[in-house]
Amino acid sequence: MTERLSPTSHAENTGFADSDQPPPARLAYDRGTWKEIAHLLANLPVALIGFVYVVTVLFVGFWLTVTVIGLPLLAAGLLGARQLGKLERKRARALLGVRVDEPSPLPLRGSGEGFFQQLWMGVKDPVGWRTVLYEFIRLPWGVFTFAITLTSLFVLWPVLPFIARGLTNADRAMVRGLLSPSDELERRIVELESDRGVVVDTAAADLRRIERDLHDGAQARLVNLAMGLGLAKEKLLEDPEYAAAMVDEAHGEVKLALRELRDLARGIHPAVLTDRGLDAALSSIASRCTVPVKVTTDLGSRPVAAIEGIAYFTVSELLQNVSKHSGARSASVDVWRSDDRLLIQVWDDGRGGAHLDGGTGMRGLADRLDAVDGLFVIDSPPGGPTVITAELPWRDRTDGR
């Protein structure tokens, strides 16, 4: 976040007030005028460095796009262009009094996000491309302003403040026009394209998990059940007692298969969540946790099913981590609504040290929430306690349930 100064202190530091309107020209050699002259004289070397950089990046990147390293080099070059833009914003702030907010950073993803998705985001980065355009424009402009300013220092000294103010007003316009944060719509398009990939990958992973659970669990039991009943049928006449024992064993297999199917269905979407909402569903999860869990909900109404489901599975995953990894003696779950957001906070008094890349599924949870414009924050110092806060957009149900 860009540091904010009071109007008074800013005017003192720069020699003129910060405003969207360019400062008026004046025939005076004050502090602001000398800063403008310094900026104009520095334009040529700074523009030359930027121009050489972006030409090299574009030439090498486009020339090598036929190879596997072309796009990564181009994405890295655009990331470097972002840094050039940052330096130019600092220079304009120090010498011209132009304060432009920093653009939003590119979203950082985990390794499970997909290398090519993140690579494509870097190649399409609108902030990087706007900086490239800025550096292209700056070289001829830098030559022009350097020559005019240097000549004016010896020839047009009386009117140099007027010339400097006019030239730097054009600089101010370029900084605001090309180095200001990208249009919000551009940024949201990039984020939503990435989030769509997260949703697709997550859905595919869930389908694979369901298929694996069916194949290794209920399906295997049903196959064994069929074989056992077939043997019992063959033994029914010659050894009724043995056949009865096999039927009894098959009955036990049926019960286990039904329980596994119920657990699988609960993992897809639990009936208690559909019928009774988050309060009852979260209490059900808490009752299965290996440590005592206090559940508090304050919602008033129910959100749409998709958000309710994400909230349920987020708490479920976090409480599983509490059971398996935290070493906690107690935990709590608080769920409440704040305006148009659904907030979840899970606390435990365990050993702490939880983080996104700790191998406990935290990264997957963060990605799922990010895909629906949510937030996921971990506060888990070594020694504990651990406080994990999740935030989801709230949308009311329209079906009356």
Notes on the structure:
The chain has 401 residues and is an alpha+beta fold. The protein folds into three domains: 7-182, no CATH class; 200-268, Up-down Bundle (Single alpha-helices involved in coiled-coils or other helix-helix interfaces); 273-393, 2-Layer Sandwich (Heat Shock Protein 90). Helix content is 64%, strand content 9%. It has helices at residues 7-14, 31-63, 70-96, 115-123, 126-154, 160-178, 184-235, 240-268, 271-276, 278-288, 305-326, 362-371; strands spanning 293-298, 331-338, 341-348, 375-379, 386-393. The chain has a five-stranded mixed β-sheet. The longest helix is centred in the middle third of the chain and has 52 residues, at 184-235. The chain starts with 6 loop residues before the first helix and ends in an 8-residue tail after the last strand.
- Estimate the strand proportion: 5-15%
Shape: elongated
Helix coverage percent of residues? 55-70%
Uncertain spans? 1-19
Radius of gyration: 32 Å
Q: How would you spell out the order of helices and strands?
A: HHHHHHHHHHEHEEHEE
Total separate domains: 3
Sheet/helix structural class? alpha+beta
State mean pLDDT (0 to 100 scale). Answer: 77
Protein topology:
Blueprint lengths: L6 H8 L16 H33 L6 H27 L18 H9 L2 H29 L5 H19 L5 H52 L4 H29 L2 H6 L1 H11 L4 E6 L6 H22 L4 E8 L2 E8 L13 H10 L3 E5 L6 E8 L8
Parallel strand pairs: 1-2
Antiparallel strand pairs: 2-3, 3-5, 4-5
Jot down its keywords:
401 residues; 9% strand; alpha+beta; elongated; disordered N terminus; Heat Shock Protein 90; five-stranded mixed β-sheet
Q: What is the structure about, briefly put?
A:
This protein has 12 helices and 5 strands.
